[in-house]
Amino acid sequence: MLTLTVCGAVWLLGWSVPSHPARKPDFEELRFYLARLRRTRKWTLDELAARSGVARRSLSELESGDSRGSLETWFRLAEALDMEIGDIVNALYGPSRSRR
Known about the structure:
- The chain has 100 residues and is mostly helical.
- The chain has one domain: 434 Repressor (Amino-terminal Domain) (Orthogonal Bundle), CATH 1.10.260.
- The protein is built from seven helices and no strands.
- The protein has helices spanning 6-13, 27-40, 45-52, 56-64, 71-80, 85-89, 95-98.
């Protein structure tokens, strides 16, 4: 029985493996973007908390960078802001994408 590993197949077939530097999510931009979205609507933390069902303290922690939040939290915020969650978390790619 012949067993071929992925690395072996890459070598045997002459494939090349891209050597991209691993990108890291820009959580700073995500928190800044959330604050911009809220301020653009002229909402207080209390108002966003009431609209989203996310505790005011949790919102404050997200905007200050003390927390990254859960997927459910970001989903609830997107719903409250009348946005798709992808449009919000796109900020993880950096400032150029979140300001579109």
